[in-house]
Write a structure and sequence with these properties.
GO terms for molecular function: ATP binding; ATP hydrolysis activity. This protein is an alpha/beta fold and 542 residues long. Helix content is 46%, strand content 15%.
Length: 542
């Protein structure tokens, strides 16, 4: 690895010093308004000579004119790098950025194409002259346009670029082939062409800065694109500036920093914090924590779930982050508590009840994790006050709403009774899994380990757990203890029964709930839901 530069960024507290070497990649991640683009401009303008820096702005033109007439390679390259025909780095700010490097529209697609054409032409001429001189006809070298074609094909295998002497066309692959001008490419395809071309045309040992590298690019191919660009420019270092946490997480080898804020006076200064990855918490989540000014609430599920919208509305003082299973919520909160560097914001977690005992819930609350009153978060909409609030939104009177709730309860009791064996079996599996995970296994030799394991597992009697929970649920069904049944009945499909009560499909019902949750002023539904959810206190407790 070749040392390219030392970057010093004015930062709150001590200045941030970063050694930049070839093959390195860095990510500066921050919310809109945190000063990320200004940071990119600062890096471009302050890295000391002879460091070569090439910055690609987020605000860039996608107009693609494939019929540009290329000048000499030297002129074309200078226009691309500096916006001026001569090698004048000092002219870059005025010629390339119009003296507004933070905000100007980067309109250099023509310059890029001209440089690619010129390099391709120059390589062809040099090759021909050399081969004729030596009377030795070897395979021609790859031009940068050839390399661009190869990367394009690897990222977009259903399209192929055809490079002509003064034009570029595209052909589709497969049975129904179609050929058309490259100017007819989609915005996403143009961006891919543009970014590959910019990376290839940068001089050797350049620090490349890409602002919003994910813009307009399909999430399914973004990893492959940047993997290819990093691979082909190992002589360079790449700095990514982004607000996209998913993109940040995908660049696993990059050194990452959270850009929290920027202040212009009395001088340029950023609040930047390294995003450390010690394995206890995924670094994309750490990035959210570092960049947040609010406490964090970890929940089960994923970013596309209904419960995420629900939690964000109820716990609107928190940054809500879904992390998967209940075990992952518990683990993430515990990992957060163990890390002093994250204690500038509080943390808590919410998980499904899963039939946990009162003692277990109390123990979890001491660790900052709170349980719902139902076994599945979706089943909150089956709880009486919530169901009646929804019925009211659908304009049913009290008598009609009560009748519908009574019918729903009957359906739930019937389903629970019919599926009792399966409910109990799933419960037993969860209990066994939980108990096994709590076994310490601190022995230092196999004999004592065997003894310790046998003693620890001897207290786990599946049949006994099964019979106890079966008896408890049976009693709740018999005595019509509706909310007690929902505490153990782990069936997400019950939400469809709620929708059916109102004559709706589940998806339509969920969309309606989503609209109700966003109403301003809040609907009565929100108050009904809040009456069941736990009052959360972030750790460290104030």
């Amino acid at each position: 690895m070749k040392h390219l530069a030392t970057l010093t960024i004015p930062s709150v507290g001590e200045a941030l010093h970063i050694e930049i070497c070839s093959g390195d990649s860095f990510i500066f991640l921050g919310a809109n308004g945190a000063g990320k683009t200004r940071l990119g401009v600062f890096i471009e303008n302050t890295l000391p000579p002879p460091t070569s820096v090439h910055r690609i702005a987020a605000h860039r033109s996608l107009a693609l004119n494939t019929k540009v007439i290329p000048p000499s390679l030297e002129v074309a390259t200078n226009r691309l790098l500096f916006g001026y025909e001569e090698y004048k780095p000092a002219y870059k700010n005025g010629s390339r950025w119009n003296a507004k490097p933070e905000t100007t529209l980067l309109n250099d697609f023509d310059f890029l194409l001209a440089a690619l054409y010129a390099e391709n032409n120059q390589l062809s001429v040099d090759y021909r002259q050399e081969r004729v001189k030596l009377n030795d006809f070897q395979p021609p070298p790859l031009s940068k346009l050839d390399k661009l074609k190869d990367i394009w094909r690897s990222v977009l295998p259903h399209r192929e670029l055809i490079v002509l002497s003064g034009n570029i066309r595209v052909t589709t692959l497969g049975e129904n082939k179609e050929e058309y001008e490259a100017s007819e490419l989609s915005d996403g395809e143009r961006v891919i062409f543009y970014l590959i071309g910019q990376a290839l045309m940068a001089p050797p040992d350049t620090v490349l800065i890409f602002d919003e590298p994910e813009l307009h690019i399909n999430k399914a191919i973004i990893d492959a694109l940047w993997d290819s660009i990093e691979s082909i420019r190992k002589d360079c270092a790449i700095i990514y500036i982004t607000h996209d946490i998913t993109f940040s997480s995908s660049r696993r080898a990059a050194t990452k920093y959270a850009v929290k804020s920027y202040q212009k006076k009395p001088s340029d200064c950023w609040d930047i914090q390294p995003i450390s990855d010690d394995g206890s918490i995924p670094n994309d989540i750490v990035a959210k924590i570092i960049g947040s000014r609010r406490s964090i609430l970890f929940i089960e599920g994923d970013s596309g779930s209904l419960d995420l919208s629900l939690y964000r509305k109820i716990y609107n003082d928190y940054t809500v982050i879904p992390v998967g299973s209940c075990e992952q919520v518990i683990h993430t909160v515990a990992s957060f508590i163990s890390r002093q560097d994250l204690h500038h914001v509080g943390s808590a977690g919410i998980i499904d009840a899963d039939g946990r005992t009162s003692e277990e819930k109390a123990a979890l609350e001491k660790e900052g994790v709170y349980c719902l009153p139902v076994s599945e978060v979706e089943n909150i909409f089956l709880l009486p006050r919530v169901f009646l609030a929804v019925a009211k939104e659908y304009k049913f009177n009290e008598s009609e709403a009560s009748a519908k709730l009574c019918s729903l309860k009957t359906v739930v009791f019937e389903h629970a009774e019919r599926q009792l064996e399966h409910i109990c079996l799933r419960y037993v599996k969860r209990r066994i899994d939980s108990k096994i995970k709590k076994i310490g296994l601190g022995s230092v030799d196999i004999a004592s380990l065997s003894t310790e394991y046998v003693e620890a597992t001897s207290t786990i009697v599946p049949l006994e757990i099964f019979e106890n929970i079966k008896s408890k649920i049976n009693k709740a069904i018999f005595q019509r203890e509706y909310e007690e049944v929902l505490l153990y009945y782990d069936n997400k499909g019950l939400l469809s029964e709620v929708a059916r009560s109102f004559g709706l499909r589940q998806r339509v019902f969920e969309e309606f709930i989503g609209r109700l949750l966003q109403m301003d002023p809040p609907s009565e539904l929100l108050a009904a839901i809040m009456s069941y959810l736990p009052a959360v206190r972030p750790y460290p407790h104030s």
